[in-house]
Amino acid sequence: MNLIGNWIEVCEMDDIDEEDVIRFDYGDRTFAVYRSADSEYYATDGYCTHGKFHLANGLVMGNMIECPKHNGRFDYTSGAAKRAPVCVALKTYQVKIENDKVYIQIE
């Protein structure tokens, strides 16, 4: 795993299927990294803000991720809570692609 400044290498671009999500753990933090239908990449905190279940086990539908526990939904492009029972937004992270690798920016 490469760390360039505050950018962390997550995976190869092709490691995430279109309209899918993967789990990425770094230290004591966990993230969900998404690939949209048009091959744009996004990243959020990994756990649902309601039930603390990992979103990588959820269902991606368009630009939404549905939590596998209570079916709450978030817009993974903005982090916005979109369907009850979730009401607290997800933190999002910048993503960049370099040499066919996906990186997320952390603080």
From TrEMBL:
It comes from Paenibacillus pectinilyticus. This is Rieske family ferredoxin. Belongs to the bacterial ring-hydroxylating dioxygenase ferredoxin component family. Residues 8-104 form the Rieske domain. GO terms for molecular function: 2 iron, 2 sulfur cluster binding; metal ion binding; monooxygenase activity; oxidoreductase activity, acting on paired donors, with incorporation or reduction of molecular oxygen. The lineage of its organism: Bacteria, Bacillati, Bacillota, Bacilli, Bacillales. Gene3D superfamilies: Rieske [2Fe-2S] iron-sulphur domain. Transmembrane segments: none annotated. NCBIfam families: MocE_fam_FeS. SUPFAM superfamilies: ISP domain. InterPro entries: MocE_2FeS (IPR012747), Rieske_2Fe-2S (IPR017941), Rieske_2Fe-2S_sf (IPR036922). Its cofactor is [2Fe-2S] cluster. Keywords: 2Fe-2S, Iron, Iron-sulfur, Metal-binding. PROSITE patterns: RIESKE. The keyword Iron applies. The keyword Cell membrane does not apply.
